[in-house]
Design brief:
0% strand; mainly alpha; AhpD-like
Amino acid sequence: MARLPLIDPAVTSGDIRASFDRMPVVLNIFRMMAHADANFIPAMRFANSILHKQKLNHVNRELLILQVAQRQKGVYEWRQHVPIALGVGVTQRQIDCIEQGSYDDAAFNAAEQALLAFGREVIDSVRVAEPVFAAMRSHFSEQEIVESILAIGFYMMMARLTEATEVDLDPAAGMTVFEGGKKRSG
């Protein structure tokens, strides 16, 4: 059971209520985030921009999100993002490799291996060794590199929110939430 009560969307108002009303599925993570009313809308917009507006492609983004969940023990994010990852083209073998921490497996192409090596260093060390950065740069644009860092940071924050407050796990919403956000960003 969550350490803090989940906000009932029916008792919210204004932009927060409008945001809840637009959600195809009201997940517990959003109900917990609503405690921070000044941050809720900016965080939702930031999440939507990561999922739908970045140049970084959907497969690479989901690989990073799953890597964050795996390395940070973010059970909530893992549950929600495995179906999204599968829905955008990540393979089950790749998911299994991430779950096992096998980032250099043949399931990943050279660019994905560079991405996951980069992600591991950003998550674990903050600073990235020059050879790892150079490998990332050989496959990804400057924009995609910065977008990768921002996606990692956002999902590290979400893992901390859900794990520190022990947010109750929802059933996986999968592509329903992803597709709902795409409509809002269009």
